[in-house]
Amino acid sequence: MKRPIPVVLSAILLGLMAAFQLLFAVLMIAVGFLIRKQGMPAAAGPQPFSPSLMPALMFGTSVILAAFAVWFILTLIGLIRLRFWARYSVLAIAGLLAGLGGISMLTSFAIPFLMPTLPVAANQPAADPGMMRIIFFATGAFYGLVTAAGVALLVYFNLAKTRALFLLSAPLAVGPPNTSTGRARPTAVTVISWIFLISGPCCLIYTFLPFPAFLFGFILYGFAAHCMYLLFGVGAFAIGYGLYRLREEARIAVFVMFVLCPIQLVVLLTPWGAHQFRIYMDAINAAMYAGRQAPPNPFGSSAVIVFFLAIATVLYGFVLWLLHRHRVAFTPALPPPPLPIQPEPLEGLTP
């Protein structure tokens, strides 16, 4: 069967992304071994994390990049073969591209206007504002292309003709869909569930890092922080699986969890919350640089905090709207109507 040009271009894009991820994974491994053998270069200045921990971080990052590369390659193969599951995989990748790319684009465009509020190290010369604006706007333009690519993939692979093309290879269904409600899973719910399934394990990475946690103005350290990251990681994965199975309790859990965002925003808008967050960012700096002199953390600015939380609130609201729109899919399907009773043939009338 002839593949449409957009499908071929999507496969090429996935191949390029996988190649770059594998390249960076190899570079991370090489740098990790180099640091392990020779140590950090003396002219590099203060670096986050201790030199003994940097190789482990490099190796861990390379594993994550390799895992994403394998995912993209498998999706590429599925696209070439027009497998029905490849469309859902592309939609999940497109959702990540559009979401992360959009956040990065807005951040890059907003940073030049937030620069007066960012902390600056006393012993370092200030960067040229004009050059910094050019760099940030160029970065924003790049992430704008990434966002546009993600949106284009979401739109194309949701078209009726595209769905019909990939349904040709779908297994023949002899019963109701394999969900808890017996209804078909909407595409938007599938994408959201996969984003949760991916973000859960990523959150679990923080359980192995010496970072504190921040919740409603309170700072958690050590074991308490690790437990919180573990709770959020396992909870996100469980919610993702529940959404994939169309469980109503998972949909309600998303609404409950997203209440945390506006509460965090209100707390950070108070003087006490802003002061606590600056202490939290200083604690992260201290953990990253192990007591060495660290540069100011730009994310400690109140303006930057409000900016990111406002973006998160908008994204969360969009997800909640999608889950509310498809709430019928989370209700049990009605049983099929009974078959009409066939009258039995009368004796003597049949030949």
SSE topology:
Blueprint lengths: L4 H34 L15 H27 L3 H31 L14 H28 L3 H8 L19 H18 L8 E3 L2 E3 L1 H23 L3 H11 L1 H10 L1 H19 L12 H24 L26
Antiparallel strand pairs: 1-2
Helix pairs in contact: 1-2, 2-3, 3-4, 3-5, 3-6, 3-11, 6-7, 7-8, 8-11, 9-10, 9-11
Task: Explain the overall architecture.
The protein is mainly alpha-helical and 351 residues long. It folds into 3 domains: 1-80; 82-170; 182-331, no CATH class. It is 66% helix and 2% strand. The protein is built from 11 helices and 2 strands; from the N terminus they run ααααααββααααα. It has helices at 5-38, 54-80, 84-114, 129-156, 160-167, 187-204, 222-244, 248-258, 260-269, 271-289, 302-325; strands spanning 213-215, 218-220. Strands 1-2 form a two-stranded antiparallel ribbon. The model has no long low-confidence stretch (mean pLDDT 78).
What is the gyration radius calculated from CA atoms? Answer: 25 Å
Distance linking N and C termini? 51 Å
Count of extended strands = 2
Helix/strand-derived category reads: mainly alpha
Query: What oligomeric state best describes the polypeptide chains here?
Result: single chain
Total domain count: 3
Helix and strand element order: HHHHHHEEHHHHH
Tell me the fraction of residues in β-strands, as a range.
under 5%
Write down the overall geometry.
Answer: globular
Q: Unreliable stretches, pLDDT < 50, 5 or more residues? A: none
Largest sheet: 2 strands, antiparallel
Mean pLDDT: 78
Number of helices: 11
Strand order of the largest sheet: 1-2
**How much helix, percentage-wise, in residues?**
55-70%
